[in-house]
Design brief:
The strands form 3 sheets. Strands 3, 4, 5, 6, 7, 15 and 16 form a 7-stranded mixed beta sheet that branches. The mean pLDDT is 93. Helix 2 packs across helix 3. The protein starts with a strand and ends with a strand. By secondary structure, it is α/β, with parallel strands linked by helices. It is 25% helix and 27% strand.
């Protein structure tokens, strides 16, 4: 089969498109014909050598959509069944989705019944699932004033699309380091753009709910813009800082407010079905920003790292 393999850390040029053996099915695992996968920032970190637990050579890819090609669970995962897979150490402890076929544990394969276009379906598993879980944890109602910190990111764009599909009139601001992408942000549903400069929001506004995608680096500042009783959901770590430093919960959490979190390893079939039902019910526009093919995964990495990137980047194979 064709695959994109990385043999040593470095830039996008280290992602090599070549022939490799197709994996052989083993007990408790099934073979998936990969039809698409998203490109995620965590894979960029791994490519650069910033994931110490990941050993090279490795086929990256922490998510995929596809069709069961060979199975070890005929009841749950019959041949021909459409599935999605998220996390579970795929692309990290074992080879992932940057390939024509992926051998994945049955426990992390989720059957789906959908007629969505493959490109749209490919955008959903990691990015939209993460945005959806975060939205639920924020307990949003239509009267809330909401801020998405890192509003141009894939999860940020997915979040505002999900929210606006249900509540077209809800107020949602998105933060960005500049106004270069203002038109794109307004076009996907943001009502206002807030400049985020050196980890500080350049506004006096306060919000009911904040989706924190920069992470530990800016949580303290986000609390300064949260109303009493508000909620922050810390979901992303785009600030490349994994832990809160010099954080006093009694002082730094805004008065009578709440801090929660979400990430895509918090997953099961019921939650997956809930997201798909929501996308269908509210006719969510999940079209990705850019679509590449397997041969051009390195170009997809270059695009996502570029300051001009916006929204979800996917790879789709016909």
């Amino acid at each position: 089969m064709k695959a994109v393999i990385i043999k040593e850390a470095g830039g996008p040029e280290k992602l090599i498109y070549e022939d490799v053996p197709t994996p052989e099915v083993k007990e408790g695992w099934s073979l998936v014909k990969v039809r698409g996968f998203g490109i995620d920032h965590s894979e960029i970190f791994t490519r650069k050598g910033l994931s110490p637990s990941v050993k090279f050579p490795r086929i990256l890819g922490i998510e995929c959509v596809g069709i069961i090609s060979e199975t070890t669970d005929e009841e749950k995962l019959p041949v021909g069944q459409k599935v999605i897979s998220i996390m579970g150490e795929m692309g990290r402890a074992f080879d992932g989705s940057y390939a024509e076929y992926a051998l994945l544990p049955n426990k992390q394969l989720y059957p789906i019944d959908t007629n969505l276009d493959w490109a749209i379906l490919t955008a959903l598993p990691e990015t939209y699932y993460t945005a959806f879980g975060s939205m639920l944890n924020l307990k949003i109602n239509q009267k809330d004033k909401v801020l998405v910190r890192a509003g141009t990111s894939g999860v940020g764009v997915a979040f505002v699309k999900l929210l606006k599909a249900k509540y077209p009139d809800i107020y949602v601001a998105g933060s960005s380091r500049s106004l270069k992408k203002e038109k794109q942000m307004l076009d996907v549903g943001y009502d206002e753009i807030v400049i985020d400069q050196d980890g500080k929001l350049q506004t006096d506004e306060n919000f009911d709910k904040i989706l924190e995608l920069i992470g530990s680096k800016t949580i303290k500042d986000s609390f300064k813009h949260l109303i009493e009783g508000g909620i922050i959901c810390s979901t992303g770590q785009l600030g490349n800082q994994w832990y809160l430093e010099e954080f006093d919960p009694i002082v730094d959490i805004a008065a009578n407010s709440y801090l929660t979190s979400f990430y895509s390893d918090n997953v099961n079939q019921e939650k997956i079905n809930h997201m798909f039902d929501y996308v269908k019910k509210y006719n969510v526009d999940a079209k990705p920003e850019r679509v590449f093919d397997l041969k051009h995964v390195a170009d997809a990495h270059r695009y996502l790292e570029n300051s001009k990137s916006f929204g979800k980047v996917v790879v789709v194979e016909d």
